């Protein structure tokens, strides 16, 4: 009998298949391994092919926009939003619009074209989060920018057009719908229970243990109860903070190791799948919130979304999260 | 300058690219044309390969589950939900679940393996809607089933696993999130303006004409103002009805011609793309609603969803709907 499960934050229902649960070997998978060989605008020596960098880590102290960097942040070549201009909110009969003011940047995570997130050192993964934090702190000074998201698409199936390992930062003048729903769902829970729902999720998951596959000093990694997708993974910090950008040194250090380990487990079990990763965090112009709790969501791209999912927001997950977590827990790493 | 547009029903924001708008020839497209040649369980003569039919149109009066049909409805071979059993709603700490009670059926739209929706006759397309209506009327007698959706995925990119033209019907014991959001958004509009938002959309679109590409006696077809996807198309009935299953004979007849023409225009401009189609209709156990208005949404699968869209509900549409509508309006049909 399939099971209907409700996401406690958003209220979203998911069908979890239990009869014919799909195991890692059942998915037709794209193995995403950099092939190299083509011209890459993100590689060292091609710095002039990107817009001038807005941030770079240069261990040897080399000049901006030259080689010698370990990480670079550059404006996107084809930005979906631009910093220039006014918002100019307008109505058009029953419709509303505004100019696409915002920012869109690319974090080049490593100079080495052939490495993916799980191949990077702990320090390199840590640096991706330092760079993201620094960019958020800089971008939020523009008070028109209300939400800033750090996300990553790896592989064509995840929308990536460049194979060189990179993340993206997008700053928006609005709070998008899904983010608003998470905030509102978490607020309703706080109003009713007077507790943070994510803190409660961490407590229930670590006590039950069925869906947890990695616990570190500052983080818990698990496949959520109402996973929309097979092998969906959340990394939730134990310490309550609404805003990612308020993390402190030990938390960023530990995140490097935690995310690297999670990615290595996913790469091992699912044979280097395409995936999307997103940092969920509270709107940047608002103060600390008792109800929201930043976290990371990772979705391996194993199956295509079927017909009715985009229309109803109702997902069918072919692998129970308890099964997915068992595979990830048991994946030994060299 | 890109434009941010807000969907008036759901409040969803979309970035519409205006600078480098993508035209039909810019999309890397999968042309979905039935290849045939493989064994097909939906073809005439293979009736025993599906579950016994729940409905069939047999112009010559042949026996159930034999050849001679023009349309068949059968339970899905791998249903995501089952009619048997009790809902058995349960809590598990902070989580909620219930058994996956529901129904999942397949409407085989034509006996001819090689035809797609745009190739069918008006009468055949009309019959798909009669069959869907009849199934909804039958299924809703089970009062546990609260939402029933008719949808179609055409092509692998749209999640279809069989190439023989078919739609699906899914009956759920809950109202899914996106459907609830449409209902709530439309209700807020009615409360504020005392009018149906979809009736207002039809009025504004037909007066403006920029995004409309087909007007028939009972329907208006247009690319919506805040289209999430390039060439997204809505077919909205002029007459206000909350429930698709309450349509009357002239409306179903005219829908056959309207949808067939829309699909032929889409097939011509986008060279037979993969697409998803969904009938949006009010929850089946509720009476007629002043605020909701059934309609059809069609989304050609032209680009992959990029990284941040699934996490934020914030879409980037590379083709302004005014441009898309112009191409569809000008597409002459033989």
CATH class of chain A: Alpha Beta
Oligomer classification: homodimer
- Largest interface here, residues on each chain? A-B, 74 and 74 residues
Overall number of strands of chain A: 15
Q: What is the terminal-to-terminal distance of chain A?
A: 38 Å
Give the radius of gyration of chain A.
20 Å
In CATH, the architecture of chain A is 2-Layer Sandwich
Give the helix/strand class of chain A.
Answer: alpha+beta
Strand/helix succession of chain A:
EEEEEEEHEEHHEEEHEEHEH
Number of domains of chain A: 1
The name CATH uses for the topology of chain A is: HIT family, subunit A
> Please, how many helices of chain A?
6
Average of pLDDT of chain A:
93
User: Widest sheet of chain A: strand order?
Assistant: 3-4-7-9-8-13-14-12-11-10
Weakly predicted, low-confidence segments of chain A: none
Strand percentage of chain A lies at 15-25%
What can be said about the biggest beta sheet of chain A? Answer: 10 strands, antiparallel
Shape of chain A: globular
At the fourth CATH level, what is the homologous superfamily of chain A?
HIT-like
Query: Helical content of chain A, roughly?
Result: 10-25%
Characterize the structure shown.
Two copies of one chain form a homodimer. Chain A has 334 residues and is an alpha+beta fold. The first copy, chain A, has one domain: HIT family, subunit A (2-Layer Sandwich), CATH 3.30.428.10. The first copy, chain A, is 25% helix and 22% strand. Chain A has helices spanning 122-139, 177-193, 197-208, 249-270, 309-312, 321-330; strands at 3-6, 13-16, 55-57, 71-75, 90-92, 95-99, 103-108, 147-154, 166-172, 212-215, 219-222, 233-237, 275-280, 295-300, 315-317. In chain A, strand 5 (90-92) and strand 6 (95-99) form a beta hairpin. Chains A and B meet through strand 1, strand 2, strand 6, strand 8 and strand 9 of A and strand 1, strand 2, strand 6, strand 8 and strand 9 of B. Strand 6 (95-99) of chain A pairs antiparallel with strand 1 (3-6) of chain B.
